[in-house]
């Protein structure tokens, strides 16, 4: 086993052990699955409603890193066949026992136990940054997918803020570490030890082009994290909800005007060219759909 393999194994074990230690928080961890009338649910659901253009047909789905089954439950509620998966099945087992999800699997994204082209769509929402070898996980998801892979992750700001990149390049001429005094989260790690991987459109494009895939699509989205205890209150605190919506409206306006980048990026990597109806629905929802050129040296 190489040093890289050992580090990845340590990461996977650390994640699983972390989830097992949290099992005493079962009620807290399953709260948003059971209570749709709290702010935490409303905020979480925003990043899933952008998937609706892909709901035209009864495609099969597999969620990756779906630790409590939230994504799987949402897809299930739209009458889509879905399997939830995570490196640990601690909370998925509980969600299944309470009838919140139908099916789950304990899966390591680097070694998925499913056959090639066996699931129409794989959804990875805010789990990609947990992967110790992110690209390895991406290619494995693409292997299993028949139609495509959806990755929703924080956006790498350098990809959308050229002035920040220019400032970094200037700092690098004097001292490569100088930028760190201003860019505090340039290097970010999780408590379990993983580097927090952020994504960009260019990186996704290179993944798709490298293996000859036909199409990709992107949508930016702003989010507000559920860090306030009031967001877990039932019923919803309407005054706080209106305040959050106003803040999101301002963020979205600034992002549309390209003053600030979106906080999150939804990337759809299509393994086969989507039909015209799907493309129309994606564009109607605000996605940029990019048809990629074929490799001229391969027929």
Compact overview of the structure:
This protein has 299 residues and is of the alpha/beta class.
Describe the 3D structure:
With 299 residues, the protein is α/β, with parallel strands linked by helices. It has a single domain, classed as Vaccinia Virus protein VP39 (Rossmann fold). It is 39% helix and 16% strand. The chain is built from 11 helices and 8 strands. An 8-stranded mixed beta sheet has the order 3-2-1-4-5-7-6-8, with helices on both faces. The longest helix is centred in the N-terminal third of the chain and has 19 residues. The protein is globular and about 55 Å long.
Keywords:
11 helices; 299 residues; alpha/beta; globular; 39% helix; Rossmann fold; 16% strand; eight-stranded mixed beta sheet
- Poorly predicted parts: none
Strand percentage: 15-25%
Helix-strand string? HHHHEHEHEEHEHHEHEHE
- Count the helices. How many? 11
- Indicate how many domains the architecture comprises: 1
Taking Cα atoms only, what radius of gyration do you get, to the nearest Å? 20 Å
Mean pLDDT: 90
Label the structural class: alpha/beta
CATH architecture annotation name = 3-Layer(aba) Sandwich
Question: What's the total count of β strands?
Answer: 8
Biggest sheet details: 8 strands, mixed
CATH superfamily placement: Vaccinia Virus protein VP39
Report helical residue fraction.
Answer: 25-40%
Task: Say what the CATH topology is.
Answer: Rossmann fold
CATH class category name: Alpha Beta
How far apart the termini lie comes to 38 Å
Q: What's the shape?
A: globular
């Amino acid at each position: 086993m190489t040093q890289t393999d050992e580090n990845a194994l340590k990461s996977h074990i650390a994640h699983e052990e972390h989830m097992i230690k949290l099992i005493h928080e079962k009620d807290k961890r399953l709260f948003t699955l059971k209570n749709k009338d709290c702010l935490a649910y409303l905020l979480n659901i925003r990043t899933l409603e952008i998937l609706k253009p892909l709901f035209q047909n009864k495609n099969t789905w597999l969620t990756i890193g779906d630790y409590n089954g939230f994504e799987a439950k949402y897809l299930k509620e739209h009458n889509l066949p879905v399997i939830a998966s995570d490196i640990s099945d601690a909370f998925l087992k509980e969600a299944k026992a309470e009838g919140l999800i139908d099916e789950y699997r304990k899966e390591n994204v680097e070694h998925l136990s499913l056959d090639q082209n066996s699931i129409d769509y794989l959804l990875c929402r805010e789990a990609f940054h947990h992967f110790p070898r992110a690209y390895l996980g991406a290619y494995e998801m693409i292997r299993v997918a028949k139609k495509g892979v959806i990755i929703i992750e924080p956006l790498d700001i350098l990809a959308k803020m050229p002035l920040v990149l220019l400032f970094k390049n200037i700092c690098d001429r004097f001292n490569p570490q100088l930028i760190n005094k201003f860019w505090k989260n340039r290097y970010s790690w999780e408590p379990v030890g993983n580097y927090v991987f952020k994504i960009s459109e260019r990186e996704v494009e290179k993944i798709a082009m490298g293996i000859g895939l036909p199409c990709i699509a992107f949508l930016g989205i702003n989010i507000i994290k559920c860090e306030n205890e009031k967001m877990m209150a039932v019923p919803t605190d309407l005054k706080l909800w209106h305040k959050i919506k106003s803040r999101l409206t301002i963020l979205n306006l600034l992002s549309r005007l390209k003053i600030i980048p979106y906080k999150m990026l939804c990337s759809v990597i299509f393994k086969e060219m989507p039909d015209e109806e799907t493309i129309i629905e994606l564009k109607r929802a605000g996605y940029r759909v990019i048809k990629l050129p074929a490799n001229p040296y391969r027929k």
